[in-house]
Design brief:
Blueprint (H helix, E strand, L loop, with lengths): L6 E4 L2 E4 L7 H17 L4 E4 L1
Parallel strand pairs: 2-3
Antiparallel strand pairs: 1-2
Length: 49
């Protein structure tokens, strides 16, 4: 799985900081992809802002 845009890994933590405006459905999809990516990379801590 490819790293999502606006996703950064620092140590054992993942940070997801998307920019711009999207619909609620699209925003939920972005966060779900970040969670899935974190899971596949064994990242146990994820901050989505």
């Amino acid at each position: 799985m490819e790293m999502p845009d606006h996703f950064m890994i620092a140590g054992a933590r993942g940070y997801f900081r998307p920019v711009g405006e999207v619909s609620l459905d699209a925003g939920v999809e972005l966060v779900m992809r970040a969670i899935l990516f974190s899971h596949t990379q064994n990242i146990r801590e994820l901050l989505a802002t």
